[in-house]
Amino acid sequence: MTTSASDTKSVLAELRAIHIETERDIELRRQLDRLLDVSTDGATTVNPVRFAGGLETRGVAMIEPAGGGKTTAVQNVLASYSALQDNPETGRPRYLHAQVESPATQKSLGIAILRELGIDKISERAKVWEIWDMVRHRLALNGIIVLWIDEAHDLFGKGSDREVDRMLKMLKSLMQGEAAVIVLLSGTERLGQMTSVDPQVSRRFMKIIPSSLEPGAHTDSLGKMITAYCDVAGLAFRPERDLVHRLIYGSRQRFGRAIETSINAIELALERGADKLTPDDFAEAWGMGESCAWSENVFVAHHWQDLDLDPLEEDPTALRSENGRKRSRRKG
Q1: What residue numbers bound the domain in which 139 lies?
Q2: Does 36 share its domain with 110?
Q3: Is 195 in the same domain as 288?
Q4: Which of 166, 176, 190, 309 has CB 3.0 to 4.6 Å from 153, enough for a Cys bridge?
């Protein structure tokens, strides 16, 4: 089979545009249903439900290791949720997406949100409280209901305990007052660990923690998804269980990584003019993103389940204790 470069690009674009609904989507939609009020006829309104005697809203935290697909899921749910579509007064959605820049500070986050709201020029001398007063005012002015902060684990990098506490209090303040919004955070495990530091903040966020891919439980469904992708690309594919199990392991049991590797493998097959997707395509696609010898490739190694894929990953639970030790040494 011969496929032109333009045809290959077209197929890949089609594959990447496919969104497969998972438990992430279902649970986030359920939480939005809970946090938005309804009219007398049962229709969802644009008014957040008020808690604590009508004084505050609540938030949602989507917590999952990198590569799980949380950002894609959040984007698709928000973009399809009817109550959050374009505000007739602004012509823009009622949700706002802001991505955390690392290293993050209260000031840099506030400026990033204002930038998304169309405010590009902020005085360098502006104080943090002035920036956040402007953020709250602009969110209200634009009729924003949901503020989505992506990569939110970077809000709690390696700052001091005091800086972390200030960031947590700032998040809590966004859900208080007349112009309170629903705060939606998405990030890695560090996000869950840090939001749990302050019980008052923790109880204000409903946690969504998607399950990992598991051999056996997800083998058939993942194999069917890859087969469906191959149908779009015009490739034959036999979803051998060993191959799918290797894909799950090599993807660190993360759904998003598994799909990305599969699409990259399809791209390689199309580029070489093949008529079927093979294990070698997966091996090459996976190897391009890993720093390992070919013999340690999860699609090649005989004892692939013994491969240690991430031996030096950081333990997020040590952050605050390390900060405390540094502060104690300075005092001593």
Answers
A1: 23-208
A2: yes
A3: no
A4: 190
